[in-house]
Amino acid sequence: MTFNIGSQHAANINNVAGDQVIHGGQAGYADSRALLDRVRQEVGTLRLPPPLLTRVNAELEAINADLGTPRSDKQAAAGRLGRLVSLLKSAGVLATSGSGLVTSLTALANSFGALGEPIGRLLGS
Predict the structure, then answer these.
(1) How many helices (H) and strands (E) does the chain have?
(2) Which of 23, 24, 60, 95 would be 113's cystine partner, CB 3.0–4.6 Å?
(3) E strands of 6-77, at which residues?
């Protein structure tokens, strides 16, 4: 089998000769970090009360730390993202923030594959 492939640019590229089965989705290390940056940007547009903003930023920093190495801890990051979504939801932020934040949170949750599925349910997706 010979592959003649030009330039490819993506977080995950699979060139397979035969069958390939992927369970739980695929997400690249860089993808999750870029999606986290989008969430941070969306949070930055909100007018959160200082105590809530402090808690939100602490969770975002912890997620960043979990993803901050090549051997990222996506399980820990997903757990923290779930806590962040629950915090924002209970404060009523998700209902009033518009679709940008929810879209960014959903994309980040999806980047964790099966680990992000409970978070997607919290977000209603």
Answers:
(1) 6, 0
(2) 24
(3) none
The answer, as to whether pTM is greater than 0.90, is: no
Phi, psi of 15 (to 5 degrees): -110, 110
**pLDDT at residue 47 is higher than 70:** yes
pLDDT tens digits, residue range 11-30?
Answer: 456 666 667 666 555 554 44
Residues 6+ apart with CB under 8 A from 101: 39, 42, 43, 46, 88, 93, 94
Supply 117's token pair.
Answer: 């599925």
Give the closest residue to 75 by CA, choosing from 34, 105, 117, 38. 117
Give the Å distances, CA to CA, from 82 to 22, 69, 105, 116.
24, 20, 10, 8
Compute the distance between CA of residue 84 and CA of residue 119 in angstroms, rounded to an integer. 10
Structure tokens at 31: 């993808």
